[in-house]
Design goal:
The complex is a heterodimer. By secondary structure, chain A is of the alpha/beta class. Chain A has helices spanning 47-54, 76-80, 98-108, 113-126, 142-153, 172-187, 199-205, 223-230, 245-255, 275-287, 302-310, 324-329; strands spanning 7-18, 21-32, 36-40, 62-67, 70-71, 83-86, 160-164, 191-196, 208-213, 216-221, 234-239, 259-261, 267-271, 292-298. Chain B has helices at 17-25, 35-52, 58-80, 83-114, 118-123, 131-157, 165-193, 197-213, 226-234, 236-249, 254-281. In chain B, α2 crosses α6 and α10 crosses α11. The chains are: A alpha/beta, B mainly alpha. At the A-B interface, β6, α3, α4, α5 and α6 of A face α1, α2 and α5 of B.
């Protein structure tokens, strides 16, 4: 019984505790079909636990959720039939080759032997893994492992995909590759729930973002709404001569306002989100004789978002992102 | 002065995004795989691991050879008066012991598997719930068969000739493997309850070691103190050893075989659901 709700995920009041810790403490979600929804928060905020509940790996202690119209507790089997999970620990078998991994998943999902092999070939080509197909996954780089992981998630195209921190621990180049793949998935119409610690990632990929802290949602909106509520990014300037910092501070303060002096004695930053005003400020600096080594207009970091939203910086809670088997012991 | 103009190409993505888009456009979902097919697929996964790391077969090949040689030549003279007589008595027993010891590794392997992220993917697939477990135990059955075959081969090399011939030896091997399949559910349960592979190994051998030695695998029960003799006679492992000996000698009692099969079935009926529940619980 699939009621064609326009929402892919509707969750109300999800709660999950591990021993004393309330990992998820009343999360509501409404994720439209065909969108990318980002859950942004530090380690231990409850993102992974939320995903594990929605993917039917663990049962919520309280609250309820429907995924693609199916109740995650009562109709968990129907949920499993329509979603796929790319977990935080790479959800591929390290002791098999890349090709064997994809054939394994294909066979388990009901593809005939021949079809499973053909699909594996197609995906290995598409994900740039054809050359590495017969190497054991334990010898893959982090980026290759992630790509294989995502490929395994679309052996049979899911209606909804859970992506748990797909780029954590990847170098910038691999991160760009994974982002490119995610964009391609979105263009193909897959709904994605994306967990991330990086505002930039959520900003680049997501249509809607929920900011999670200590198991609760503390803010929600589109990336631009969120950034607007946070206030701004910052114009970061590094000077050739640290002795000119005081002078630079005065110029920037009169142009832009709040100044932060960086630990680097030649660097300072000013709160600013408007590129035009930033450009003017830079011109003013040069006119006044301050010599600039480099400058950038950056987005607020996760820390700045948290500082603005909660008054405290993002802190890691150690309960959630431990070895998940630890988690199971306490269920 | 004319400025140079370069258009920066998009960074190589490693993936072909057009191909990715095409790959996910094929949305047809095949009918769900049935229970047998998913279990066999997991069995295939076990076989692939053996193929990639054949060294892991050492414990089911070298150890049994050591046991046969050690018991035959070290204790044979002392226990049965001659190495030949003891060899004929003990070979079916060693077969039982080696294969049953191997079942502990099923629990160890499952515990190791749980620390890996791939288990989350298996749990999130729309498949018959116990299939990862049943599949890996089916894969392990191959290991049991290898261990058993090695024992019998070594016995034959040392001069053992099963009176019931090849059919008797094969029947005994089958019976031992069926019992081992039932017993391995006990260790998979242990594998899900304990925290580390080492703990499973220790606890497993702490259990299987005394139970195997307190049977008629090594000595005739008549030589034991009465209390011990009573225990040894009702120990299912004694009955399994007696039945295997019987099958190899061609004088097995149907009752013994029946008890062995019943115990294997009971172990499976009790511990398979427990294991499955623990595995799903996550």
């Amino acid at each position: 019984m699939t009621t064609k709700s326009p929402l892919a995920i509707e969750a109300t009041g999800l709660v999950k505790s591990f021993g004393e810790t309330r990992a998820v403490d009343g999360v509501d979600l409404a994720v439209p079909r065909g969108s990318v929804y980002g859950m942004l928060g530090p380690n231990g905020a409850g993102k992974t636990t939320t995903i594990r509940m929605l993917a039917t790996l663990i049962r919520p202690d309280a609250g309820s959720a429907r995924v693609l119209g199916h109740d995650i507790v009562e109709e968990s089997d129907a949920v499993r039939g329509a979603v796929s999970l790319t977990g935080q620990l790479a959800s591929v078998d390290e002791d098999l080759t890349g090709r064997e991994n994809l054939i394994l998943i294909g066979r388990l999902l009901g593809l005939k032997r021949f079809d499973a092999k053909a699909r594996a070939t197609e995906l290995l080509e598409a994900f740039g893994l054809a050359e590495a197909e017969s190497r054991l996954v334990k010898n893959y780089s982090g980026g290759m492992r992630r790509r294989l992981d995502i490929a395994a998630s679309i052996v049979v195209t899911p209606e909804l995909m859970f992506l748990d921190e797909p780029t954590t621990g990847l170098d910038p180049r691999s991160r760009n590759q994974v982002w490119g793949i995610i964009r391609a998935l979105v263009a193909g119409g897959t709904t994605i729930l994306l967990c991330t610690q990086y505002l930039e990632e959520a900003d680049q990929l997501a249509d809607g973002i929920a900011v999670i802290d200590h198991g609760r949602m503390i803010a929600e909106g589109t990336p631009s709404q969120l950034k607007a509520s946070v206030g701004s990014g910052a114009l970061k300037v590094r000077l050739l001569d640290p002795a000119q910092r005081l002078q630079a501070e005065q110029v920037l303060a009169s142009e832009l306002g709040t100044i932060t002096l960086e630990p680097d004695p030649a660097a300072l930053s000013a709160a600013c989100s408007d590129p035009d005003r930033a450009a003017e400020a830079i011109v003013e600096l040069t006119r006044s004789g301050v010599r600039i080594a480099n400058f950038s207009l950056g987005q607020p970091s996760l820390d700045e978002v948290f500082l603005a939203l909660t008054g405290h910086p993002a802190e890691e809670v150690s309960s959630e992102d431990l070895d998940p088997s630890e988690e199971e012991q306490s269920v | 002065m004319s400025a140079m103009r370069t258009t920066k190409p998009a960074p190589p993505s490693g993936a072909d995004e057009a191909a990715v888009r095409k790959a996910i456009a094929s949305t047809s979902r095949p009918p769900r795989a049935n229970a047998l097919s998913t279990a066999l697929t997991f069995g295939w996964r076990g076989m692939l691991k053996v193929k990639h790391v054949p060294e892991q077969l050492l414990d089911v090949t070298i150890t049994p050879v050591m046991f046969v040689l050690m018991f035959t030549y070290l204790f044979g003279g002392a226990i049965a008066g001659s190495t030949g007589a003891y060899r004929d008595y003990i070979l079916p027993g060693i077969l039982v012991m080696s294969v049953l010891f191997t079942t502990v590794y099923s629990g160890v392997a499952l515990n190791t598997d749980l620390t890996k992220g791939v288990v989350d993917r298996f749990r999130s697939l729309p498949i018959w719930k116990p299939s990862p477990l049943v599949g890996s135990l089916l894969g392990d059955t191959v290991r049991y068969v290898i261990a058993g075959t090695v024992i019998i081969m070594v016995g034959v090399i040392l001069g053992y000739r099963p009176p019931a011939g090849v059919p008797g030896a094969v029947a005994a091997l089958c019976l031992v493997v069926i019992f081992a399949f039932g017993l391995s559910w006990v260790f998979t349960t242990l594998g899900l309850l304990l925290r580390s592979p080492n703990a499973v190994m220790n606890a497993g051998f702490m259990g299987i070691f005394p139970v195997t030695f307190l049977s008629n695998v090594f000595v005739r029960p008549e030589t034991l103190p009465p209390v011990l003799e009573t225990f040894v006679n009702v120990n299912p492992i004694s009955i399994l050893a007696t039945a295997s000996r019987g099958l190899m000698e061609g004088n097995a009692r149907a009752g013994d075989i029946g008890i062995v099969l019943a115990v294997a079935a009971a172990l499976t009926l009790v511990f398979a659901p427990v294991t499955t529940r623990l595995y799903r619980r996550g």
